[in-house]
């Protein structure tokens, strides 16, 4: 097994080309396989994904077509020791985020202590005044969290982004594993891989544990989707089906007798927990956007009265903000009393004059992101940008510096992908999924590995041409 080129850190190969221990069992199996058979399996995986409909819509695509998310059949493998460190760091960060949100919507001690500027709240649409003074059932704000990680060395994992609003991608984690087990069942007897297939059961259990006090002994759960035209609709339908929950749109729900009630064949029945995949602004036309037809009129009144749980809580998007992200080391230390186990990527806040000067002077070497952006949109990757693109972004930065942060271009780790010509290294990131309830924090051993399929590319988002891999966490 060989790879044509090297990055700073290749997760499969040592610098001398020998196999790292994590991949030893897998590589032994791979080298014994017929290459023609592997190519046929690769093609079969694509047919499988098309058959079950694992697609997504790309916003802004003139054709409006659904696209297949490319799947690479070589797993990304993480050792048990590496995962233990990651899990400790993820749990610490998620605890801090939940405590941070509780504080922001109540006493705001972190602002009084001078550790976070007040303008980050005042000038931020993601901070919802409707949540001030209210504590969600069980004290949980972030029921489902996705923490985006990148690797830059043997023991160097950095947090690239926090997804505390409506993190997506877990259905692809599950389908990637199912595909691998269907194509290569013998592999899972040879390599001790921790399971991820029980995530929907754990999600349902975690959501029910967050039900309001008015719920019965078996709380009802519904997944609220914007509808079939949403880019993540496949995932909404998939999770509802896997959890045994109802998939509903806003038109299926109404507020009646102080509860949110769902239309059924037997009339309307109360819903206790709503796993919403609708943005805050569209959740309640009486509290937010009055033109919204995606939400439920009056749901915020029921919520604040303790009649329903909304997961994730409205207002959690403030923790996704990239300007807030730059303060996460201080936030973790403030609420846990500990140094962060997982570090941030170094970040320049363009709202600060000295940082803006540095960014403008070094734009061709940096990655610049919109503070409220996501999905790889609205960003600049300096080293791969033309002079015209750099000039256009300089103008944007000068006009609204507070809208942007900048980060160094990281030497992301690579893992091999399967190509017709053989194995080739490509850059990856990792999104582990975390469930939070009053019973504790539950981290699924694995996550969604996104891979940049274009040679040299650092952009892994599916909307920007990236693909996915099955992520293996080795058992002890």
TrEMBL record:
<dbReference type="Pfam" id="PF14403">
    <property type="entry name" value="CP_ATPgrasp_2"/>
</dbReference>
<dbReference type="InterPro" id="IPR025841">
    <property type="entry name" value="CP_ATPgrasp_2"/>
</dbReference>
<dbReference type="InterPro" id="IPR051680">
    <property type="entry name" value="ATP-dep_Glu-Cys_Ligase-2"/>
</dbReference>
<dbReference type="InterPro" id="IPR016450">
    <property type="entry name" value="UCP005522"/>
</dbReference>
<protein>
    <submittedName>
        <fullName>Circularly permuted type 2 ATP-grasp protein</fullName>
    </submittedName>
</protein>
<feature type="domain" description="Circularly permuted ATP-grasp type 2">
    <location>
        <begin position="75"/>
        <end position="452"/>
    </location>
</feature>
């Amino acid at each position: 097994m060989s790879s044509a080129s090297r990055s700073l850190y290749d997760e499969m190969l040592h610098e001398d080309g020998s196999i790292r221990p994590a991949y030893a069992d897998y590589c032994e199996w791979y080298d014994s396989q017929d290459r023609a058979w592997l190519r046929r399996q690769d093609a079969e995986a694509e047919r499988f994904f098309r058959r079950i409909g694992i697609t997504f819509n790309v916003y802004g695509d003139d054709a409006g077509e659904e696209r297949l998310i490319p799947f690479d059949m070589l797993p990304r493998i993480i050792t048990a020791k590496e995962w233990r460190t990651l899990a400790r760091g993820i749990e610490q960060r998620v605890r801090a985020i939940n405590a941070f949100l509780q504080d922001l919507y109540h006493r705001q001690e972190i602002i009084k202590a001078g550790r976070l500027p007040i303008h980050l709240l005042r000038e931020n649409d993601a901070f919802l005044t409707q949540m001030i003074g209210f504590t969600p059932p069980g004290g949980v704000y972030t029921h489902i969290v996705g923490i985006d990680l990148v690797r830059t060395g043997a023991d160097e994992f950095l947090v690239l982004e926090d997804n505390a609003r409506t993190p997506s991608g877990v259905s692809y984690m599950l389908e990637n594993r199912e595909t691998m087990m269907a194509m290569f069942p013998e592999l899972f007897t040879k390599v001790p891989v921790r399971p991820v297939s029980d995530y929907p059961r754990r999600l349902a259990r975690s959501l029910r544990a967050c039900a309001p006090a008015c719920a019965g002994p078996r709380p009802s759960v519904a997944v609220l989707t914007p509808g079939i035209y949403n880019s993540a609709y496949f995932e909404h339908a998939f999770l509802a089906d896997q959890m045994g929950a109802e998939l509903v749109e806003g038109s299926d729900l109404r507020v009646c007798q102080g509860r949110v009630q769902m239309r059924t064949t037997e009339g309307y029945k109360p819903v206790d927990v709503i796993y919403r995949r609708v943005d805050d602004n569209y959740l309640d036309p009486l509290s937010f956007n009055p033109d919204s037809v995606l939400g439920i009129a009056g749901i915020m009144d029921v919520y604040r009265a303790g009649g329903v749980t909304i997961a994730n809580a409205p207002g959690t998007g403030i923790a996704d903000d990239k300007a807030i992200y730059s303060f996460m080391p201080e936030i973790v230390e403030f609420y846990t009393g500990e140094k962060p186990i997982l570090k941030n990527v170094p970040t320049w806040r363009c709202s600060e004059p000295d940082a803006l000067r540095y960014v403008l002077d070094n734009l061709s070497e940096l990655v610049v992101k919109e503070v409220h952006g996501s999905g790889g949109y609205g960003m600049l990757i300096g080293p791969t940008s033309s002079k015209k693109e750099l000039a256009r972004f300089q103008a944007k930065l000068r006009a609204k510096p507070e809208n942007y942060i900048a980060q160094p271009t990281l030497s992301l780790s690579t893992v091999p992908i399967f190509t017709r010509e053989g194995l080739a290294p490509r850059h990856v990131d990792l999104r582990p999924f975390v469930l939070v309830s009053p019973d504790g924090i539950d981290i699924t051993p694995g996550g969604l590995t996104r891979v940049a399929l274009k040679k040299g590319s650092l952009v892994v988002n599916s909307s920007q041409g990236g693909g996915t891999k099955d992520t293996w966490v080795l058992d002890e």
